[in-house]
Amino acid sequence: MAYQPPQGTRALSRNQALQLLFQAEGVKRPVRRVLEDEYLVTNGPASDYAQELACLCEDHLAQIDPVLAAYSERWALSRMHSVDRNILRLALYELLFEESVEDSVVINEAVKMAHDFGGDESYSFVNGILGRIVRDRAQGIDILRKGQEEVASEASEAEDAWAGPEAADAALADDASAEAADSDISEA
């Protein structure tokens, strides 16, 4: 079945925002820079809402990406397909920062985009992650804090792994120095 662009104004704008985020990531430029240059979107040019949504989503990536990392068990963001990652980012931006949009609408739109643009399993992957986030939030879990804690934990683990060989060498050197000092004292 051929791709059919969404009919609703907001649905089309989300679709265009996704395309802007995807293009910005692909050319390694900020969304605002992509908007200044040439870009392609379905039923373009991009609506004002699509541009605003893409820019605001990008502005909040420091808060969004840690949450996605915390909820995408065994999937580093860098390993995710770019389309899936940007669908999740856009949806999470709306879940966290756009109170006027219902959670069910955000999830349904994200799943639809994943079905239209992603791989065979993208829609279930996107639905699963967003479903866990919404469930946790409904149970009173601060998902922004959970994301930050995940980042802190990963940084600590990376620091421990990085310091491992160096710390072991330093400990061996300290032991050798202590032994040498002990032998100097006993000889005296």
TrEMBL record:
<feature type="region of interest" description="Disordered">
    <location>
        <begin position="152"/>
        <end position="188"/>
    </location>
</feature>
<comment type="function">
    <text>Involved in transcription antitermination. Required for transcription of ribosomal RNA (rRNA) genes. Binds specifically to the boxA antiterminator sequence of the ribosomal RNA (rrn) operons.</text>
</comment>
<dbReference type="InterPro" id="IPR006027">
    <property type="entry name" value="NusB_RsmB_TIM44"/>
</dbReference>
<dbReference type="InterPro" id="IPR035926">
    <property type="entry name" value="NusB-like_sf"/>
</dbReference>
<dbReference type="GO" id="GO:0006353">
    <property type="term" value="P:DNA-templated transcription termination"/>
</dbReference>
<keyword id="KW-0694">RNA-binding</keyword>
<keyword id="KW-0805">Transcription regulation</keyword>
<dbReference type="GO" id="GO:0031564">
    <property type="term" value="P:transcription antitermination"/>
</dbReference>
<dbReference type="GO" id="GO:0003723">
    <property type="term" value="F:RNA binding"/>
</dbReference>
<protein>
    <recommendedName>
        <fullName>Transcription antitermination protein NusB</fullName>
    </recommendedName>
</protein>
<dbReference type="GO" id="GO:0005829">
    <property type="term" value="C:cytosol"/>
</dbReference>
<dbReference type="InterPro" id="IPR011605">
    <property type="entry name" value="NusB_fam"/>
</dbReference>
<dbReference type="Pfam" id="PF01029">
    <property type="entry name" value="NusB"/>
</dbReference>
<feature type="domain" description="NusB/RsmB/TIM44">
    <location>
        <begin position="13"/>
        <end position="135"/>
    </location>
</feature>
<keyword id="KW-0804">Transcription</keyword>
<feature type="compositionally biased region" description="Low complexity">
    <location>
        <begin position="161"/>
        <end position="180"/>
    </location>
</feature>
<keyword id="KW-0889">Transcription antitermination</keyword>
<comment type="similarity">
    <text>Belongs to the NusB family.</text>
</comment>
